[in-house]
Specification:
149 residues, alpha+beta, four-stranded mixed β-sheet, globular
């Protein structure tokens, strides 16, 4: 696996292009490559099932029940909006929390990845647009991500 952006530059753009295409079909693979600082441990079968559910378009509503500290929010509230934001295909993503402040914290983390993650920028380019506020962003893919409490 490519460990740093310099490795991609040494091996050529084809490596990151392959990861970009692979990630489109494999949400878990996307997380392990593009969000590696959060997804560095081997995935449990529970996580693999979550990754598959996220790409299953026949599932319109899903309830996820698991104990605390099982990465539910990291996968569903953080990684999934980044994944959908990179590839497009959805118009709106709404992050809802008990308080607006908590939802905004999630969006702040998401924005930071779009602004600073060299792997995402290397593969997808600068996705930032003029609409980039504390609680609402629109990406160049046309995806809007909004935080509400």
């Amino acid at each position: 696996m490519v460990e740093k952006l310099e490795d991609i530059e040494n091996e050529g753009k084809s490596v990151i292009e392959k990861e970009k295409e692979f990630g489109r079909k494999d949400f878990g693979g996307f997380c392990k490559f593009f969000l590696r600082k959060y997804f560095y441990l081997p995935s449990a079968s529970f996580h693999e099932e979550l990754f598959k559910i996220c790409l299953d378009e026949s599932k319109k509503r899903v309830a996820i029940v698991a104990p605390r500290k099982h990465a539910k929010s990291t996968i569903m509230t953080f990684a999934l909006p980044i994944f959908k934001g990179c590839y497009g295909g959805v118009k709106n993503i709404l992050i809802i929390s008990a308080t607006g402040g908590y939802a905004v914290k999630w969006l702040r983390r998401i924005k930071k990845e779009f602004e600073t993650n060299k792997f995402i920028i290397g593969a997808f380019g600068n996705l930032r647009t003029e609409k980039w506020s504390e609680d609402d962003i629109v990406l160049s893919t046309g995806v809007e991500i909004e935080a509400k409490g």
